Structures are given as structure tokens and as C-alpha cells.
Amino acid sequence: MAISTATPHSDVTETLLEFPDNFLLIDLCGEYDANLTALESALGVQILRRGNHLVIMGEPMARLRTQEILQALYQRLEAGKTVEPGDIDRELRMDPVENEPGAQKELFKGDPGAARVEIKTRKKLVEPRTEAQKAYVRSLFDNELAFGIGPAGTGKTYLAVAVGVNMFINGQVDRIILSRPAVEAGEKLGYLPGDMKDKVDPYMQPLYDALNDFLPGKQTAKLIEEKRIEIAPLAFMRGRTLSNAFVVLDEAQNATSMQMKMFLTRLGEGSRMVITGDRTQIDLPRGVSSGLWDAERLLKSISKISFNYFTSKDVVRHPLVAAIIEAYEKEEAKG
After folding, report:
1. In tens digits, what is the pLDDT along the chain, a chain of 335 residues?
2. CA 20 to 30 Å from 277, out of 13, 15, 173, 263?
3. How far, in Å, are 87, 103, 198 from residue 82 at the CA level?
4. Phi-psi map region of 155: left, alpha, beta (phi>0 left; psi -120 to 50 alpha)
5. Which residues lie closer than 8 Å to 35 by C-beta, 6 or more apart?
6. Helix crossing, 60-78 with 85-93: angle to 10°?
7. CA-to-CA distance for 208 and 257, rounded, in angstroms?
8. CA distances from 259 to 184, 231, 294 (A)
């Protein structure tokens, strides 16, 4: 654990942090001290490295916030985890009141109430980065039917697929089914070259990308060949009963009301179903209502169905994505 002391330096007070493990300190600083630079830019402080110490210079509250974040990230490293840019971004977004040592212990020391915050897959350990994401992941484990609604980049589909892979490798489900509407945007499917798989695969690519993050490529290919993992357009779900499966419907805002009803009624014994979508990105023809809107309106009062909401604060892509979403949200609010 890092030890801190405050010492006067001219007119500025310094906070001195001591890190016992120099190898972990190197990881904490990042390549070319990139992690320290990110904190300096975000919090308006200056961080100097002296041996196994870090010296923080700046305003008292900014120094305290920087100290909290550095100590939290060092705890990650002590627990055998890595520190990536997304982890720094998460810590910066956390409410300072929530970002106290007790709150960090819940995340990093396996508190029973937070046992499901970490998602183990074949290739990596996945951690939700915001409070909304943590609540979402818990709801995926706790509910047979869950909705994730919010802007792009908030991890709705990524986390859902991670939970699906976790349940699959632990034997809780026999297969994974990933689907999304093949909504045409400018090009007609019939005009695209190739057979049906060639035509629809571009629509499904984000689901392949998420899956390949959690399972080795050869294993993924084998499971798809064995039909234990299916990635298919929403239209292919008609007439099926999906039992003992983890089912994800992505981009649900582009499902019509009839398609949504059809999909929801596919839920079979021993299955989990996750519906994700962004109400601001509906690509359906004018006059066609979104099945996501209708499902939210009709099903919200059912206690065993979980609705989870995300905002621009939950965006875990490039920080500019959050800024772009906020700009559009402000513009829409004016209208």
C-alpha cells in the first residue's frame, strides 16, 4: 500500500506517496509515464517521480483526488490486475465520495456483495468500469430477462456477451445465441455479393468482435460450426424456442414491435435473454415504431424483468465519444 505525507515546498504543499514495490510503480506510471500525464492533464496537478516515491504538486483538493486515484490503481496492481487507460478514465469519473478506501476494497478484495462484478472468460477478466455497468452486470446474472438501454460505447453488448461466455464456460447454459436486426442502410441485402451468410455477416461483425475478445479464435470457430454459438439476424429467430441458452439481441431499437414480441416469446426453459439498444439511433423507416420503445413501455412494470440505463458518463471508448454524445444530447434538449 502507498504511504503518503504532506510537506511544505515554497508556497506550494506537496503530497508525497511512497510505493514499496518499484516494479508495480513502473506499471502504475505507464509507458513513458503516460498514466501520470493523463492524471496531470485531467486534474491540473504536477506529478514527479523520485525513486520509489511520487510527488504530487497542486491545489489541495486536486492533490487529494490524485492521491486517491493513484492508490486505487496501485491496489489493482497489487491484486494482480493491469492498469489501462480505461481504468484511469473510470477512476476519474467516480464520485470522490464513493472513491474512498472502503469503496475500493469492495471492488478489489472480493467483497461477497461484489462477487459478480468481475467476469471471467477464456481470454481475459472483464471488469465493469462505472456504477451503471456494475449494476447492469449484476442484473444479467440475477434476471432471466434484462434490458440495457443507452448510447453507443457504454458496454451494453460487450458486457452482455462477456456474461454469456462466462455462463457458457461454467456450464450454466448450453449455447450462446447472438442476434441483431439486419436493417438496411442505403444498400439492399439482395444487391450485395455472395450467399446469405456473406450478405448478413457485415451486420453481425460487432458481435463477432465481442466474442473474439473472450474466446480463442479456433475455439470460437469450432463452437460456431457445432451450433453451440449462433450469430444470426433477428428474422432467423422466428418459430424457434430458445432453451438452455444465453441470448442477446443487439441494436434492438431497430426491431419492429412485431419482431420484438416474436423475439421475447422465444425465451425457453433455462435461458437468459438480454436486449440492448440505443433509442437515439433508430434506423427504421418513418412511421414504423421501434420495438424497444414498446417493450420498455409494456414490460417495465413486470418485476422479474430488469431495465438498466446508461448515459454519456458510462462511455468507455475514447473520451471524445462521451463529449460528442453530450453535445448531441444538449442539441436535442434545445429542440
Report:
1. 455 555 544 455 788 999 989 899 999 999 989 999 999 998 999 999 988 899 999 998 999 999 999 998 998 888 888 888 878 877 876 655 444 444 333 333 334 344 447 888 988 888 888 889 999 999 999 999 999 999 988 999 999 999 999 999 999 999 999 998 876 543 444 555 555 566 567 778 888 888 999 999 899 999 999 999 998 888 888 888 889 999 999 999 999 999 999 999 999 999 999 999 998 888 888 888 899 999 999 999 998 899 999 988 888 766 677 777 778 777 777 76
2. 173
3. 9, 19, 38
4. left
5. 28, 29, 73, 83, 85, 88
6. 130
7. 26
8. 16, 17, 11
> Residue 32, class by beta-carbon neighbours within 10 Å (0-12 exposed, 13-18 middle, 19+ buried)?
exposed
Which is nearest to 2 in space by CA: 88, 126, 104, 87? Answer: 104
- Span between the terminal Cα atoms of the chain, in Å: 51
Q: How far apart are CA 178 and CA 248, in angstroms?
A: 5
Task: Give the residue among 179, 168, 141 at the shortest CA–CA distance from 276.
Answer: 179
149 and 276 in contact (C-beta within 8 Å)? Answer: yes
Predicted TM-score (pTM) of the model is 0.72
Reported as type and span, the H/E element at residue 273 is strand 272-277
- Provide the b/e sequence for 286-296 (b: ≥16 CB within 10 Å): eeeebbbbbbb
Residue 248, CB-side half-sphere exposure with 13 Å CA sphere: 29
The residues pairing with 249 across neighbouring beta strands, listed in sequence order, are 179, 275
Distance CA 179, CA 248 (A): 6
255 contacts 234 by C-beta, under 8 angstroms = yes
